[in-house]
DNA sequence: TAAGTAAATAATTATATACTTATATATCAA
DNA sequence: TTGATATATAAGTATATAATTATTTACTTA
C-alpha cells in the first residue's frame, strides 16, 4: 500500500492537484469517463478553460483520452507510474458523483454524451 | 487511518505542497525543528524567500514557530485539522535527513543553531 | 458535400507566485 | 548601549497560471 515518490516528481503532481477544478475533475474521472462538455456544464467555465486543464493532466500522463464518435472521453490512467500516489490523495476526498447525477437530472448528460 | 477532507480545503493545502521547496521543508519539519538559516543553507535561496515560504505555511497553521534565543525554530503542527491528510502525502516521500546531516558535517548547523 | 457540434489551439489578459534587494525589528553579547 | 546576527516585512520584478475570446480542426449527419 505504501508508495514512494521522489520529491521533485511529487511536487509536480501536487501542483496539478492543487487547483480545485482539476482536483474535482480527477476525482470524477477516477470513477467515470467524462467528456469536455460535461465538465463545462459542471464547472460553468469556458470550454477552452476545461481543455487546458485536461491538457495539463494529459501532458503528465495522468489521464487518457478516448474518442467516441463526436466526443472525446477522458478518464484516469490507472497505469500511471504514480497512480497509487494520486489515489492516496483522491481516496480521502468526498465522492463527487452527485455532480454527475445532477447532469443526468438536467438532461445535460444525455444530450451531450 | 482513512481521513476525509473537503475538496476546496484539500486543493488549498495541495497547492502549498505543490512547490518543491515547501514540500521538502515540510518533510524536514515533520522530524526536526528547523530555523530559517538552516533552510537558507539547504536551499541556497535568499533568507526572505525562505521566510515567505514559512509565512504561507504558518498562515494555514501547518507549522508552528518557537523562539529560542536569537533563533526561531519552525516545526510541523501535529494538531492541525488536516495533519493526517498532510501526513498521508509526506509519508510517501523519501526521508530528507541527509540534508540535516550535511549541515552538521559542514558545521553550518552548529554555527547557526 | 455542406452544416452543425465537439474539442483543441492561438492569442490575449489579469492575477498569482516566487524570487530579488533594501530595510525594519528583535535578540544577544561585548 | 553599541555592534552583530537572525528573522520579518516592504517593494519591485519576472514568470507562471487560469481565465477569456476568436479561430481551427475533426467528426457526424442530412
From TrEMBL, chains A, B:
HTH arsR-type domain segment(s): 2-96
Listed SUPFAM superfamilies: Winged helix' DNA-binding domain
PROSITE patterns assigned: HTH_ARSR_2 (PS50987)
An example molecular function term from Gene Ontology annotations: DNA-binding transcription factor activity
Gene3D superfamilies attached to this UniProt entry: Winged helix-like DNA-binding domain superfamily/Winged helix DNA-binding domain
Domain of life (superkingdom): Bacteria
Entry-linked InterPro entries: ArsR-like_HTH, HTH_ArsR_DNA-bd_dom, HTH_MetalResp_TranReg, WH-like_DNA-bd_sf, WH_DNA-bd_sf
Keyword Transcription regulation found: yes
Keyword set includes Disulfide bond: no
Record's keyword terms, sorted: DNA-binding, Transcription, Transcription regulation
Protein name stated in the entry: HTH-type transcriptional repressor AseR
Organism per entry: Oceanobacillus indicireducens
Gene name in the database record: aseR
Amino acid at each position: 500500500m505504501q508508495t514512494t515518490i521522489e520529491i521533485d516528481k511529487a511536487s509536480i503532481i501536487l501542483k496539478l492537484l492543487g487547483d480545485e477544478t482539476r482536483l474535482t475533475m480527477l476525482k470524477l474521472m477516477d470513477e467515470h469517463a467524462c467528456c469536455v462538455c460535461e465538465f463545462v456544464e459542471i464547472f460553468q467555465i469556458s470550454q477552452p478553460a476545461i481543455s487546458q486543464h485536461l491538457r495539463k493532466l494529459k501532458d503528465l500522463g495522468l489521464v487518457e483520452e478516448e474518442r467516441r464518435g463526436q466526443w472525446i472521453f477522458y478518464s484516469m490512467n490507472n497505469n500511471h507510474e504514480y497512480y497509487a500516489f494520486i489515489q492516496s490523495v483522491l481516496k480521502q476526498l468526498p465522492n463527487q458523483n452527485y455532480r454527475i447525477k445532477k447532469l443526468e437530472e438536467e438532461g445535460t448528460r444525455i444530450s451531450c454524451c
